[in-house]
Amino acid sequence: MRPVDQQVVLITGATDGLGRELARELASRGATVLLHGRNAGKGAAAARQIQEATGEELPAFYLADFSSLAEVRGLADQILAEHDRLDVLVNNAGIGTAWRGRSEREVSEDGYELRFAVNYLAPFLLTRLLLPLLARSAPARIVNVASAGQAAIDFDDVMLGRTYSGVQAYCQSKLADVMLTFDLADELRGHGVTANCLHPGTFMPTQMVLEAGVTPVDSLESGVEATLRLVVDPELDGVTGKYFERLREARAHAQAYDVDARRRLRELSVELVRAPAPA
Q1: Is 170 known to be catalytic?
Q2: How many structural domains compose the chain?
Q3: What 3-state DSSP class applies to 276?
Q4: What pTM, to 2 d.p., does this model score?
Q5: Can you tell me the distance from the alpha carbon of 109 to that of 155, in angstroms, rounded to the nearest whole number?
Q6: Does the residue 278 lie in any domain?
Q7: Among residues 62, 112, 120, 170, which one is catalytic?
Q8: Per-residue pLDDT tens listing for the chain (279 residues)
Q9: Do the domain assignments include residue 279?
Q10: Is residue 119 within 8 Å of residue 92, measured between CB atoms?
């Protein structure tokens, strides 16, 4: 990888919590940080806070609501139009088991179960659209923020229309992120782009955790450290297709290693988002 101060890094979900603190740390090291969020006011505030904390230029902010695949496409179009290089994509944006105090089943603008749409389909589509830019920028990295909370996907009821649980919805979306990571690693092997994922920490004091009414366990700082490592650590040059829990490589849910399950998820995802099919 290039030195950090020569890198362009896109972080989704960067207006608060893990994403914002990761952006601040990277900006303090001289990286060109691109912030994404779904709230313009919070995005502007985050950019100012990062500038004030680092003394660097005001980071660019991109507005997109990941419950809309059209807005995901718009975000990709903006990045492709405005940047000739992207060294790292950090797929961090997501919603938890409860959102805005609601834990009942909700659907996205496109009619998909909301957590599956925001936590998985949006980064799936964004990554596919930005892959050509990442490949041209190689060596490059994709870092997917997953979770140790993983649950098997029932391909007969992916959208949980029959039986809904916020925990199941969240956990299956995070397993899908792991499965996406493993697929990307296989697809991109030998092309200079690596893909890894991680559980950054358990119940860090983020908006997602606080909205669910859960008492934090791990610190935000430890989560930033674990995620930052996958972004910048030179010892991970060429390392791909790994799942980490905090700083250690770990074993994901068994379904993540099921090649047929990954194929079914991949084919379903391409159909749902109408994205370019993997090579």
Answers
A1: yes
A2: 1
A3: coil
A4: 0.94
A5: 21
A6: no
A7: 170
A8: 999 999 999 999 999 999 999 999 999 999 999 999 999 999 999 999 999 999 989 999 999 999 999 999 999 999 999 999 999 999 999 999 876 666 789 999 999 999 999 999 999 999 999 999 999 999 999 999 999 999 999 999 999 999 999 999 999 999 999 999 999 999 999 999 999 999 998 867 676 666 656 666 678 899 999 999 999 999 999 999 999 999 999 999 999 999 999 999 999 999 999 866 675
A9: no
A10: no
